Amino acid sequence: MKSPALFIDRDGTIIKQIDGHYISSIKQIELIENIFPAVLMLQNEGYLIIMVTNQAGINKGILSNQLVDEINQHIVKLLKKRGIDVTAVYVCPHKPEEQCKCRKPQPGLLLKAAKEHNIDLENSVIIGDTDKDTEAGLNAGLKKVIKI
Ligand SMILES: [Mg+2]
Ligand SMILES: [Zn+2]
Questions:
Q1: 11 is catalytic
Q2: Class of 5-147 in CATH
Q3: Which long-range contacts (CB under 8 A, 24 or more apart) does 26-32 make?
């Protein structure tokens, strides 16, 4: 039995973005609380919560994989305290010029999550703060995409 998912972008959606900079410390994490009620509502309806984030800073050599994981796990912990259970986090480490299949607006992160967590893509939703997020959703076959 497949489950729908709520795919949710990280920077600018779950946490505040810092203009022109990568988030490089857990001290920089500031949650955007106002989307949490909607996330909780979908979670209660049976949607898996999946975070999907482009982090080109990794392959640019600005951020290590380990640091990005640490920041992501800290965010997962903060969300858990608010009742939100993140099933998985998917990260694209690639630079735009690498032309990978996972950097949003490419659908790779969503497709991988769907395979690994038996997700019903057609009935899933993506929420993000840019067209890259909504286009990734459409490219993965989602019918509902939300830009905040
Ligand atoms: Mg964003
Ligand atoms: Zn990628």
A1: yes
A2: alpha beta
A3: 26/70, 26/71, 26/74, 29/71, 29/74, 29/75, 29/78, 31/75, 31/78, 31/79
pLDDT digits (tens, 9 = 90+) for 46-103: 999 999 999 999 999 999 999 999 999 999 999 999 999 999 999 999 999 999 999 9
Neighbours of 114 (CB within 10 A): 20
Q: Which residue ranges make up each domain of the chain?
A: 5-147
Does this model's pTM top 0.90?
yes
Burial class, 37, CB count within 10 angstroms (exposed 0-12 / middle 13-18 / buried 19+): exposed
- Residues recorded for the chain: 148
pLDDT band per the 50, 70, 90 thresholds, residue 39: very high
9 is catalytic: yes
Q: Which ligand is nearest to the CA of 95?
A: 2
What percent of the chain is helix, strand and coil (3-state, nearest 5)? 40, 20, 40
Residue 92 C-alpha to ligand 1 middle, in angstroms?
13
